[in-house]
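Researcher: Predict the fold of Zinc finger, RING-type.
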Amino acid sequence: MGSGWRKAKRALGFRFCVFIPRTQEDSVQSVGNDYQRLSDAATASSKSLLLSPLISRSGSRSSKKTCSICLTSMKQGDGHAIFTAECSHSFHFQCIASNVKHGNYVCPICRAKWKEIPLQGPLLDPHPGRARIRPVNYPQNDPLMTVVRRLPQRSDSYRQMAQLLYAPEPGVFDDDEQTDPQPVSTENGSSNKSSTRAMEIKAIAEVSAAPCSQSYDNFSVLIHLKAPSAYTVQNPSLGQTNSTQDSQTPRAPVDLVTVLDISGSMAGTKLALLKRAMGFVIQNLGPSDRLSVIAFSSTAHRLFPLRRMSDSGRQSALQAVNSLVAIGGTNIAEGLRKGAKVMEERREKNSVASIILLSDGQDTYTVSSSNGGQTSPDYHLLLPLSIRGGEGKGYHIPVHTFGFGSDHDASSMHSISEITGGTFSFIETESVIQDAFAQCIGGLLSVVVQQLQVDIKSVNPSICLRSLKAGSYPSQILSDGRTAYIDVGDLYADEQRDFLVLVNVPVENSTTVTSLVKVKCAYKDPLTKEIFSLEGEDVRIERPEVAGEEAVSIEVDRQQNRLQAADAMAEARTAAEQGNLAGALSVLETCRRNLSETVSAKSSDRLCIALDAELKEMQERMKSREVYEASGRAYILSGLSSHSWQRATARGDSTDSSSLVQSYQTPTMFDMVTRSHAFLSSTSTAPKPHVRPSWSFSSHHKS
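Model: Structure tokens for Zinc finger, RING-type follow.
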């Protein structure tokens, strides 16, 4: 057996030689050189395969099912880690590591020279210039997994980037800059200012009257909420009113952490557009806002701590962002871990906090692709516990995710946003990235309501709450069946939320009116820290002995349509993931047909028109497996994210509010996107999309 193995090794032509840098300077220099080499390769061809040693960017693995060294089967979950080289050939990790230990770093099959080498060794802090990489199915705490990189020598700029990524960081991220002791809300003499901060709340029954002799099991009651407009301040001496975008206007300051993918596939145009988009974000944050930037590829590094965006803070932030260089794999989990650490360990806190995550690839370090298997990836592994939404506790640090291009993992990005209470945006066209960021920060810079909780109570002992239709918002009906609540959290200025409560309506013999439910809400003003309570009027319906045919409230009907369309999108996506595209198309077509027969459709309701257009677009993106994989999945998931949170997302190639699928866009989002277009116009002669004023699903129901 031993003699045969030696002959096999000689036949494969193994060479026993290995080079490992001996000094920290040599090693860091080598990492910088690898940045240059892979960045050049990515720039030369945006379609080139930038393979990590674990898995390709597309998530496809080697088709070989047998390890070419030990000639036994390779299956995930059989207790053996699998190593996939950049040449796409796969081996048992223990088998190939045993050979590499003796200096072999060419592929035994195709003779390709490897740039990333599997090596067994003790779990030590990696030597500068070496990245520790685990196979996708290898135990998280196994001490044997490392990868040693052989890297040639190249330019100084990439060495500097390597030094930045591998530079020591403080053990605790409590070095955030002090929050503004005098935020804008106290400037220019607050005694001369007045502000109105009132939410709107109303409840609408499905019909206004129902025969007293008839009962209903699932009678719909719509709860409609609208946040106050952007903070406005009236100066009596000047007779002028300012909006929230004005630098002297009070608003809640923001702590923002951006977690940015700088893997090899981001090289070239993508990274240049990301830098420009980040420049726009930095320029539009105020001196009371604080920003920290995390850059991640195979590892992650904090470019700078939470820093106020004063003139000097902006200049430092711009310099740090402009120094980014693309290289390596995609370790989303490590990027989020650093981002969450910044938020969790900050000494001081601004009123609003959020994380923005952008990636164009798939995490190749923490979550394995199921490849059509029975087990779905556990995307919770990508998120630190500190930023996951707790049951019944709402969401404290939402992560707004942006999937960039056709190769990103839309399922993981959508899951991250759903778990944390953020939104998922699909950036199909590279040039839209700045507008997508602008729309997001336009909302974050206009938060006017926090910790919003809605309470619904039955006012009649015979009325029971059957169910709540609240999308992704945490909601619960208590065991008595008469009390329920919805945890809404933050609202941007002018945002609206619509929820349906289904109740039973009994036969009424003693009175001509049936009282159904009472709705109230409580919330905090993030600027003044005041707590407000607001109570709506009782929802009642007339109970005549004989009632004519009552038309269903168009407000209720349109929300029923929205929920029906969202359910169809989710069902179609499930069918598509199971390989049943014909079934997915049928689900969407049935929903379109049902919507066309509703009261809203017959009234030319714009929401109904928008939903039909959206469903039709999804059908187009599900006509083939190739199209679905390239854009259909991401388009549907961004749509589901938008409808489940009732919040605007970027979808496809547009953030334009004139698009029928951008109807959750608020005025402040619209203003920031308009500002983005102006910024682009000042730096480019390329034509920019026309922007129309935004409209709301709730306030405009006819074309």
